[in-house]
Write a structure and sequence with these properties.
This is V-type ATP synthase subunit D (ATPVD, ntpD). The protein is 72% helix and 9% strand. It is mainly alpha-helical. The protein is rod-shaped.
């Protein structure tokens, strides 16, 4: 709109007079252990009121609209990056949960079944061994008794 009213050349000249945007600063923010970039800055160093008397209304409105759009773009970029990083971490956590559920738990259950089987087998072997020892002790006792009877 400002270009149509005042012309491209005038718009460019006025834009050159205005101070540059401040540098963006990116500071990390921690959300649930995920580092998210936070964008700050990007505003003009001087205020637009310095130029209001010198420039036409259409150009000042265009400048204000640009600042608003610039702020919105920064907010959207910050939120998009946040969502992408959180989505990546959620997917990573899902993969870990699936690995635990579908790989580690079945392996542990199989190991538990094997250990239970071995313990039961060892218990049966021990029981059979005790019976054999008891039977042999009974036979020895019986032989001792017979030997005493014969000796008398």
């Amino acid at each position: 709109m400002a270009e149509m009213i005042d012309g491209e050349m005038r718009l460019e000249n006025e834009a050159m007079k205005i101070s540059q945007l401040k540098k963006l600063t990116i500071t990390p923010k921690n959300i649930m252990g995920v580092k998210i970039p936070r964008l700050e800055g990007g505003r003009r160093e001087g205020s637009l009121t310095d130029y209001l008397l010198e420039i036409p209304v259409s150009i000042s409105e265009a400048m204000k609209a640009f600042q608003e759009v610039h702020k919105i773009v920064l907010d959207v970029a910050e939120k998009e990056t946040t969502l992408r990083k959180l989505l990546y971490e959620i997917d990573k956590t899902k993969r870990k949960a699936n690995a635990i559920e579908n790989v580690f738990i079945p392996r542990l259950e199989a190991a538990i079944r094997f250990i239970i089987f071995r313990l039961e087998e060892m218990e049966r072997d021990t029981f059979a061994m005790l019976k054999t020892v008891k039977r042999k002790m009974g036979e020895r006792e019986k032989k001792k008794v017979e030997a005493k009877v014969i000796a008398n």
